[in-house]
Structures are given as structure tokens and as C-alpha cells.
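Students often ask what a holo structure prediction actually looks like on paper. The answer is less mysterious than it sounds. You provide the chain, you provide the ligand, and the output is a string of C-alpha cells encoding the 3D arrangement of the protein together with iron/sulfur cluster.
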Amino acid sequence: MVFKEFKIIRVNLTREKIRVEELDEADARLFLGGKSLGTLFIYREVPPGTDPLSPYNKIVFSAGFFNALVPGASKISVVSKSPLTNLIHDSSSGDFFGPLLRKAGYNAIIVEGASRDPVYLWINNDHVELRDASKLWGKDTSTATRMIRTETSEKASVAVIGPGGENLVRYANITFDIERAAGRGGLGAVMGSKKLKAISVYGDRRPPSAYPEKVKELGKKWYEYFSTNPRFEDTRRYGTTNALLYSAHVGMSPSYNFKKPWIPEDLAAKLAGDEVKKREVEPPWYIHGASCPIKCARYTRTSYKGEEFEVKPEYENLAMLGAATGVFDTDAVLYFNRLVDDLGIDSISTGNTIGWFLELVEEKLIDPKDYGIEVKGFGDAKAVEELIKRIAYRKGVGAILAEGVKRASMLLGIGGDRAVHVKGLEAPAWDPRGKRGLAVSYATADVGASHLRGWPRTRDTPSKGPAKDVVESMASSRDWDALMDTLGICRFVSYKKDAVVEFYKLITGEDASLDELLLVPRRAEVLARIYGVLDHLHPPVDDDIPRRWMEPEGEGPLKDEKAFISEEDKIEAIRYYYVLRGWHPELGVPLPETVERLGLGWAREDALKALQVVSRREI
Ligand code: SF4
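The corresponding C-alpha cells follow.
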């Protein structure tokens, strides 16, 4: 029954037309929502070769299938062709947006074309309209969100871009309700290229389900479990803000542009745990979704250079804006966090790209004065602040760094061997030299270097044995994570597998096994892979890791560890991943029979074409 009721809002900005469409029942059943459904739309509607910043690209806001029905299922996926990687990219976020979109009666929004003047979209249950956003253009994300809430509803959830998105920074993000972000892959720049400043949504109807009372009852049981179980106490107390103490201790931090993944505890402690906690204040209402039983977000108030501000730090922000740039000043890094949030640029890519630039200066490979800026090297907080601002406004050298670390190294003609990215996506704050097989995850993830696409189940370091041995566990963790991104469940709200199947049955009124559910995101992975190959991707060459991670660590507990034992170890593990996925064992392209088996017979010809394209390409 629920699969007959999928509704999609389609907004054509060029023609200023809004239409509500029904989704084909078979597509709804095979793709459900979130990441998977969004990938289907981009695959079908944005041909390979499309310029991501042209009006021909589209951007999809795809609600998680469990949004507004299951505790902790609060994430929406934003999916588009990434201006950073040219791959189909999905990034999830939000506490309220997805649930309110479902409550308004919709599963997804597809935005196409481009407006001539700035606009925003206002969805209030059945009422959907485009509004003038010229007064909002140029405003930072906090200010714009507050203005839009005043114009629409104080109860609305707002997804907005800042100056970074307006200025087409290739790693601009989309900010949800001031403190959350669909951070990665430059999806904010896609909105900027369409002159779409924001989407505001409000809805007050419960989404359909086959057994609404039973869904509520089961939800209450799990809410109780997550909100009281001592297992989640640390997450409730610190969120992710404690993690630098761990990653630095084990030699997995991104410190100094991944040059020194191990750093002493007293240094790491400046950007972690209690140092952050002593600045903590009560979060405002929009920080914690009503549905979340864990409520991990930590909210701090502090001041930097006389300016008082509030911010919600996370591990990735602290590690990438602080440790990766060598700045270990808590207030400075919290201020950088506030800045990137307001300017609407991804903290991971920003910290990574600036860390790389500082390394070039430190190693005297460039003279910053040639680029009109004073930079001393790692740890220069004044320069980091200035670079963040220049990136968001594309000023001076900021225009080069706004292109992302891969393009920046090509534009400067230097430092490619120090640029830490996969397929153009800057690496996050977990150095894979500390975990056997993690580098396989980075090398083969659909979007490039992401820490959210599968972790191998091992405590071993890479030197302890062949990476191939842990690939199966990485692949199954990837499947589970991608299912969560399809259902909209937050990663910290770690449901048992049976519970997810039980919710599915009560919501749909249909039987499904866990294995069947896990096939849903596999379909998206296969489509994304074929799409990438038909666009530009060249496996297996492009399924690689940055050179830095094949250099042995210099000190600390992981001294001499590399991401793989050897080149052969790497190739063997990556090929094994291809085999597990039913892809061509050497070319890394989904085989036509795999595509058929996943129920995607209509994409069989594309898979054949992709195979031909790769086998004809010269290395
Ligand atoms: S656990 Fe944290 S990130 Fe996840 S939904 Fe709750 S508050 Fe949001």
C-alpha cells in the first residue's frame, strides 16, 4: 500500500514550474528512499558528461524511508552529480528536514534547471511555492535561516546555502537548521549554480504505514532502549568530540595534513573531550530532533579574538580544521568551525585543502607572498582564518583552493603527491594506516574518500596480514551503512538488524528478509558505478589511495605502518572487492548478469557499454 503513495515534488527553476508526481510502484519498492532513491533519479535524469554546475544537473532531496516513523530515523540524503568529483554523490543530514518533508506528504524533491534570480522553495503541507530570495543572497547560513523561518514558519526546517555555495566553491555544503550539514561533495555549489538559496519545509501529517499503532509501539520500545542504555552514555556525553584523543593515540589522526597521524595526548586533548566540554551550554531547540533517543550533539559557547559565538563541534570539524592544519588552539578551532558553518563550506575538505597548502609553505615549495598572503606554515591560526574566508569568497589564492585539493594541485602545478584525496574527494580525519583494510574502503567507495562507506571488522593494523582477508567484513559494513542512508537512520542509533526488518514489515505490511533489504543500496552502488564509468571513471586505476598513505608512518605506535603491505596486497584486496560485488574482476565494472540479478534489467545495456568503455581505454 505505501509503495503506491510515493509523491515527488518536481521543481523546474528555469520555467518556474512546480509539479507533484507519483512514483512508479516498482521503483519505490526497489529503491525505498534516501541515498538509493536519489541515486536512481540522478542516474536516469542527468546524462553522463553533464557539467555539474550547469542547469542540466539536478539535485534531489530524498527523505529516508523510515523518516518520521522510527526513532532516530531523521536523516535526509541530498544527491546530485558532484562538482568536486563528477560522480553521483550523496550526503545525508538533518534532524527535522526529512521527517517534516514526509509529514508534508512527500518522499523527495527534484530540483532541475536554473533560476535567473535567487529564489527559495517553501513547502507547507500541500502548498508549494517559489519565493524571491534576493534579500537573502549573500547572507550567511545562520542569518538566512532565521530570516526564512520568520518569513515562513518558526516550526519549519530550513536547508540553506551560504556564500560558499553562492560562489560555487566546489566543496560548498548545504546547512540544515543552522548546525547540521549535508557536507560533502559540493552539493551546496549545485544549489548555488541554480540560484536556489534555500528550501523551507513544514508538515504535520503522519506518513502512511500499514500498521501505524504497532509502528508507534515498537518505536516507543526502542526509544526507551536507546535513551537509557548505558552503552550510549559516552555518545550522549561527548557526541563525537572525544575522538581525537583516540585517533591521535592510535596514529590515525589527520594531523599536519596526515604527515604525523600520531600526536601526544596532551596536544590532542586541546581539541577533544573535556576541553570542549567545559565550553558546553544547553542546546537550542533545533539541535536535537524530537525523535532522537540519543541526542549526541554538543553545543558550546566561547569567544575568539573578542568575538563571542556559539557552535556545535564534531570530531571531523575539530580534527580537520585543527589537527590537519596544525592549529591546536581550542577557541581558534571552534571559531573556524563557526566560520565554515556560516559560510557554508565543508569542514573536511576545507581543513584538508588548507592543510595541504600549509605543507607546501612549510616545505618551502611555494612562497605564499606570490599568492598575496602571509602564511607561516602549520599552526598559523591567523592564516587559516584568512584562507577560510578567501575560499568562501573565491578571493585571491582562495579561488584556487576553492577548487578542491586535487584541482588546486593541478592549477599550481605542485604538491600532487601531498594531496590527500580519492577521486577528488578530500580525505576525512581517519588515516587508514591504522586499520587493516580501511584503505580498501576509501579506494572503492562510490563517492571517493569517505569514512562512512564501510569499516573492516578488525583491530589489526595493515602489516598484520593481507588486506584481502578483511574485505568481506568491510563490504558487509558498507551494505549496512548504505541501508541506513536509505532508511534515514542515524549511524549512532544502532538498531539491531531484526528490529530494522520488523519496522519494515510493520510499515509496508509486506515480508522481506534482511538480505533482500540489503540489496536496495547495492542497486544504487551498481548504478553509481556504471554512471561514473560512462562519465569519466577509469577503474581499476582510479580505485587508488593517495601516495601519502603508502609512505610509512614516522613515529608513534604505528611507526612504519603503511595502508597496505605492498602494491600487490592493495591490488589483490581491491580485486577481491570487485569479485564480491559481481563486478568484472580486473576492470571493476558491474557485470550485466549482476545488474539483472539486482532487478535492474533496464540498465543491462549501460553495463555492457561501461565494460566496453573501460576495456578500450588506455592506461
Ligand atoms: S544521535 Fe546525534 S546525530 Fe544522530 S540523530 Fe541523534 S542527535 Fe542527531
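The radius of gyration is 23 Å.
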